[in-house]
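Changelog-adjacent note: as of this version, every example in the card shows the full chain rather than a window. The one below runs 487 residues end to end.
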Amino acid sequence: MIDNRLLLLLRKSRSVALKFSPSNSTRCNTFSPLFQLSVEPQSRFCSSFQRIIPGASVTRSLVGRGLRSLLQNDNKIQMDEVDKQVSYFFPQNFCKPSFRNFSSSASISSTSTGGVKLLVTAGPKAQKAVGIWLFVSAAWVFSMVVLGGVTRLTRSGLSMTDWKFTGGLPPMSDDEWLVEFEKYKQSPEYKRINKGMNLDDFKFIYWMEYAHRMWGRALGIMFALPFSYFLRKGYITVGLGLRLSGLFALGAGQGLIGWWMVKSGLEEPPSEYTEPRVSPYRLAAHLTSAFAIYTGLFWTALSVVMPEPLAAESRVWVQGAAKVKRIVLPVSILVGITAVSGAFVAGNDAGRAYNTFPKMGDTWIPDDVLVLKPLIRNFFENTATVQLDHRILATASLCAIGGLWLYTRKLDLHPAIRSLIGSTMGMAALQVTLGVTTLLSYVPVSLGSAHQAGALTLLTFMILLNHTLRRPSLQLLKTLPSVVKAP
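Full-length structure tokens:
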């Protein structure tokens, strides 16, 4: 009750101040946006106010505590702003004249703007710095995927027969190279495929695998050092910190998954007629994990720099985006499944079989698609079935994205969303073209790497589209016009 009466008294202080002012010329032109009243010279105002409210020091304390309690749950205005306003009207030396000026805009909490939870807490510059760091990290993972594809296609992945978590220096002398070469000669790949390889050829595949491993370790350092710096500076919120910690742990585990995959290729094959290669299951796990890390980094980077959807400019555009979102999500899942099926194609080296299109050899469906027992093994280990699955899923993805593009032509959408859907359609068509060309060309290194990079690029478009189609915050939605304002 006391706080309510004091707030009412503050709102009426304009009339009190005018009453004791001899003329308008003596008024102070400082305004408080919080209480919306003009302030008189404090020497006259305080001398009059003391006769109204005895015990000025007690009153100041009560007003400060009362306003803080009223605004405790309103995170739009910082508590120090309240202290400034209270100190302005009730200074420590209550009747000592003071002519301090205050900002005419209320302070906005660094962790939320209009109800949107920000992931970075130290203003626009910190937001930009963290966003750039995360985008660079995502691009680094992208390059890791491409380099891994080149390593696989050049059959370099089994050239290093041991592994250390921290890595080490490469061979520096002829004797050290001979030691590494002797280790490789004991592997099944050398005995059955590369027997007779000379030292120079071995050095090439060794350097490819070494570069892939060290590029991954460099990514860990590049991620960890800025992360520690931003944490120390207090830029990162708890939610963002936990998310990035999880991604860092997954990245560290990616090295273990990679070695787990390589070990499967260093074991003796079950049959003398079987070509030594890594387990398709482990290769798929390694590639899928890389895609997951990339998705997490890219989505988080977008969330840092774009806390509100780009298309949130009118309610009509928001409604259109909501309609598209219902279709984009299942299409994105289909694109993701297609990418994972490509990992099994790579793991079984299925791209070098049935190098015709659209038929597989002389038939649409080969006769041996279900020869393995139990039946489920065919979808992961049978060369014919794995390639057939990938063809069907790739065609379905292209048709689904094409249908999305046709559907959205009739909707009222933000131009950025319309352009993004068109770009996604173009990328899907390019990816299918790359896949067919790679197959017909018997999987050369250049086209095979481009096709793997294209899969990640298409996934990037789907991530960006899903992020752009997010629903805006309720606070922003209330302020949007019903229709698009004319330029």
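Structural remarks: The chain has 17 helices and four strands.
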